[in-house]
Amino acid sequence: MTELKILISREQIATRVTAMAADITRDFAGEQVIFVGVLKGAAIFLSDLARQVKLEATFDFIGVSSYGNRPSPAQELKSGWDSTGEVRLTKDADQSMQGKNVILVEDILDTGLTLTYLKKLILARQPKTFRIAALLDKPSRRKQPIQADYVGFSIPDEFVVGYGLDYAERYRNLPDICVVPRE
Ligand code: PRP
């Protein structure tokens, strides 16, 4: 397998995830929470984060896909891809969110289209509270004015893989967050 340059090491991720979990534990002291992971990228982050949150918690997962002509992986690597902004639900959560503390867990907040759609969807279900935890944030790419409540790392516009993030479905199992060179 090609060696990729590490942007954020597994040690840095672990330290930051521990701190995020401590923030969530403090903010929701005495309460129960539902972690809702966005498939598939958030699965690893959710499992590490949730295991360090010292609260009564349940898990759920939600799946979305974006409309638009997703280019070939090589083209996506070169210039990214911009969906039409329409997002479609491919898998709904199983649990009711009404009156619950919902923490939506994402691997990366990029244009913000996905989270804007999911925020609207979840708020319509009348949770008691709604928060977003995103491991990575690429503010320079934002098209919708949405922010996460808990952010791991703010990163430049690099094509990143590992720790759940993929390039054409590969590299999700890398323990570090790495950069795929665009050239
Ligand atoms: C990625 C990521 C977010 C979304 C963020 O998902 O996991 O869900 O894109 O992008 P946005 O802010 O521009 O909407 P992707 O569609 O690559 O699916 P995956 O999680 O299965 O890799």
Provide structural commentary.
The longest helix has 18 residues, at 10-27. The chain is built from 4 helices and 9 strands. The model has no long low-confidence stretch (mean pLDDT 92). It has helices at residues 10-27, 43-52, 73-79, 113-123; strands at 5-8, 32-38, 56-66, 87-91, 101-109, 129-137, 150-154, 160-161, 177-179. The protein has one domain: Rossmann fold (3-Layer(aba) Sandwich), CATH 3.40.50. With 183 residues, it is α/β, with parallel strands linked by helices. The structure holds 1-O-pyrophosphono-5-O-phosphono-alpha-D-ribofuranose (PRP). Residues 38-41, 106-115, 166 line the site of 1-O-pyrophosphono-5-O-phosphono-alpha-D-ribofuranose (PRP).
Write the layout of secondary structure elements.
Blueprint: E1 5-8, H1 10-27, E2 32-38, H2 43-52, E3 56-66, H3 73-79, E4 87-91, E5 101-109, H4 113-123, E6 129-137, E7 150-154, E8 160-161, E9 177-179
Helix pairs in contact: 1-2
The chain binds 1-O-pyrophosphono-5-O-phosphono-alpha-D-ribofuranose.
The site of 1-O-pyrophosphono-5-O-phosphono-alpha-D-ribofuranose (PRP) has 15 residues, from strand 5 and helix 4.
In short:
It is built from 4 helices and 9 strands, in the order βαβαβαββαββββ.
